[in-house]
């Protein structure tokens, strides 16, 4: 895949919960080597968009294509291309940290899984916890494990929902550097974040959710108020 | 009146301007600089308040019964139920008890009619072992449950507000211990009586063994409470294993006795004497256990009390929603937290086989899961030995269903949330197939070992010939396996969907079918065999169930696809008419705007 290939294409995405319209007419195109940050206040629809992108939620309207194919959560190729860290990640209660990563790496056919797993464990400072079961990890360590599960496997598109959550300062800094390096290596990234440092370091484009569609609309809204 | 010491805030030096340094692009440096700036800003603020010192003066010693009365008073004061509502609920409870009781009595009479064929000395001797097996199982169960919960528990609120106070915990917890002991006595005695009646025992035997089982199980709970006071777990764990193994041994003896390999010669008179001895022994153990437990109540650590309370709260929530899967998840999570750490096992195949390999490794890590499967092998033999061969497929499949659920733990995790399944490059069907292989192998072994139970074997069973027996054994194993898979992969109750009005109030649609999931498949596949229909019917049903279990018949997905197609058709019609059916966003909705384009 060339660097400028379209990895994600979203057209006219809409999602409502009853009468409450959360997202409407959302368009997005992300190419390889691009990182798009979704920002905006709580409830502006960032997580809803991300959940729709990965198939965790179903959009009421619109089209989503990943690597040129319509989104299908059960499509093996898409599962191979799409790495996600959103709020619905679960863990096997009786598999240790390192066994989780070993399972993901081997399931994805990583050529040298042991080396890859050790490297990611080291980078995320999870080596002391490698034998621990997930239930005994702190919330920050669980977050690191979730991130590690995305980095231990091949991917073309990375979707992250507030990845900085529960990470310490060093963790956020490491994540920013890592995501920047991933983007520069050709990975497409879409992430929602409230952390300005992460957004400034990683994003090539920022989409502010909940903002008026254009200045004229904004003026009209101010006049209405 | 207590004195308060107020710490005066010292005058703060004026905030210094940060040293002028070259702006860094390193995210860590940016974050640290921001943190330094925020700290300086906070440092410049005055202290919000003083703090309470430790010289509070004389404190009255608390009197625990008063605290209990106080809590009762609060609860009564906040009662949200009127007397008429309480009476109505009571009426429903009594009515339900009567209905369930009538069903049980009917089941007992039917079972006794069936086992009236059991007249030989061998069969009668085998039947005499049923109360002994029940006793041992009740002792193991009572100890296991006690070890899991406490058995003495306290809620998180009580742990925080009361247990941290200088009170004698024994006075608060004594009532709870008594409640648990009484509930255990009646529960285990009722279980023993029910099984003894169903197996055709006489009334004197039923009464003696119910008393003995009740006292024995209650003694085990008291001993577990005494161990809780010493914060020990190992003795109860060992005792559970011993009683569990003894139960299996008695069940095997039951089968061996009915087949004629063993001659215990248990007469009704001897059974009565053993029952009496058990009752006396149980009473003595109960008295000793209660004395020790009572003396150690003050020593139970707060964390042991509240962790059991949290577990009770979690399980109560799951059970109030009739979500047995969630209840099991809570227990599994709890066991994993208790274990905390494992010796990791890495390596193995790649790709699709990795899930099967992991399931195999998990079985080796938890070999105790095989105990359940081993016990379930005995069940159809025991049922046939007791003169009920017609019920052997149903009961055997139910036993295998229960035994196989723990071997499907990985499948359960992959099903309960899509997040983990999405990280694996396999379709839902591939994942399910990969994780069914290990339990399927176990079910195959189970089928081989249970063939004799379904044949005309031992002179008791009015069963089938060997060819039929093989077919019945395989289909029974398939029913157990598919029932377990169905139980594990069932989607949880959707509380957001519109509810259905019933006589018991609003219920989420599918709640009642959710409770019997798994069991329905077992009954569906084994029912034709029970009614003497050709096995090919059961085989056809099993194949259909298997395809459905792989996720090819996801009704929810099909409904979504249908709705999308209908919407598209509607839009096409509207466009043909020159209008647009696209829903308009509500006023004030969130239009998006690309704010910034960089690089």
Structural features, described:
The complex is a heterodimer of chains A (225) and B (599). Chain A is globular and about 45 Å long. In chain A, helix 6 runs parallel beside helix 7. In chain A, the strands form 2 sheets. Chain A has a 5-stranded parallel sheet, with helices on both faces. A 4-stranded antiparallel sheet of chain A has the order 2-1-4-5, with helices on one face. Mean pLDDT of chain A is 87; it is low at 212-225. Chain A is α/β, with parallel strands linked by helices and 225 residues long. Chain A has 8 helices and 9 strands. Chain A has a domain at 6-88 and 155-224: P-loop containing nucleotide triphosphate hydrolases (Rossmann fold, 3-Layer(aba) Sandwich). By secondary structure, chain B is mostly helical. Among the domains of chain B are: 120-339, no CATH class; 354-493 and 509-567. In chain B, 68% of the residues lie in helices and 2% in strands. In chain B, a hairpin with a 2-residue loop joins strand 1 and strand 2. The longest helix of chain B is centred in the first third of the chain and has 32 residues, at 83-114. Chain B is globular and about 95 Å long. Chain B starts with 26 loop residues before the first helix and ends with a strand. At the A-B interface, strand 2, helix 2, strand 6, helix 3 and helix 4 of A face helix 1, helix 11, helix 12, helix 15 and helix 16 of B. Strand 9 (205-208) of chain A pairs antiparallel with strand 3 (593-597) of chain B, so a sheet runs across the interface.
